[in-house]
Amino acid sequence: MFNYNPPQWLFLFYFYSFCGWCWESVYVSVLEKRVVNRGFMRGPFLPLYGCGGIMMLVVSKPFYDNFLLVYIAGCIGATVLEYLTGVIMETLFKVRYWTYDHKKFNYKGYICLESSLFWGVCTVVFSHFLQLPIEKVLLMLPMGFVSVTTTVLTMLVSCDFMIAFKTALELRDFLMYMDKAKEELRRMQKRLDVLIAFKGEDVKEGIGSKIGGIGNSISSRVEGLSAGISSGIDVLGASLEKSFAALREKIMLNPADYVISAREEAAELYAKYRIIMDRLTPSPVRNFFEWYKERTIMGNPTMSSAKFSFSMEEIKNKVCERYKRTGDLEAKDNDVENAG
């Protein structure tokens, strides 16, 4: 029972990974009411399920004749695997691809009692019922076919995994940059408020009610931010654009009121602001890794980040809005074609 050679074990790993992808994609697609390509990678494989399937066979083999021990071994083995995978992925990428925070009796969101008990049942059903017909088919396959298939799949999955790994690291770096950028933009906003109010009470009133209103709005927003209210890049960017516009108008109308050092500082702040925003703004023609990153986010709607929670949610919202707009445009194009 369960005595396979290395190519057969590898074949089973890919088979379980594919079945796991089918299950997860269908389940999440139903919940999200849209087609979801689930998983860390973009190909139709979920390695966690492949590892889980192999683990279930390995831990159940010594206790195969005792359902209770198989159940307990499955609970423990799957829970350990799920916990280690979650911890390692979050440590590397600063992102969680799943969470059980909403479940009772969970441990830091990585594992929960309900899931552990479910994996125990799966181990019993899988090892005693599902694996038997799978084994019969596997043993009927020519070894040459198994070897060639696993070799080809290994090359494809390895390429997919390397791209996914690189993309996940890019996403982590982008989240870190977003947080630093927000802090820098907030500091710019405060400094701009000082420059706008350069002449004291006279300038606080502004050269007109419009500029005065903008200044008051900006000050209120900065006070809110310092009180702990999180703002997105779009909000901060819009606020800074208004501040730069107000400051430029003041300098153009009354250049003598602003010493050279103040004008140079304003120019330096704007140059730094443009550098930050250009890096945060996606280019019209996105490269392959940007497409891959967005597909990863769309395929993992429960993605979260404890360290960069606000930035992660902001990225997810932007990606969802973009794909919603794309879907609306495609639907309109289809309507036009059908009408024609």
UniProtKB/TrEMBL annotation:
The keyword Acetylation does not apply. It comes from the Bacteria. Residues 171-198 form a coiled coil. Keywords: Coiled coil, Membrane, Transmembrane, Transmembrane helix. Pfam families: ABC_trans_CmpB (PF06541). The keyword Coiled coil applies. The chain crosses the membrane at residues 12-31, 43-63, 69-89, 110-130, 142-165. This is ABC-transporter type IV.
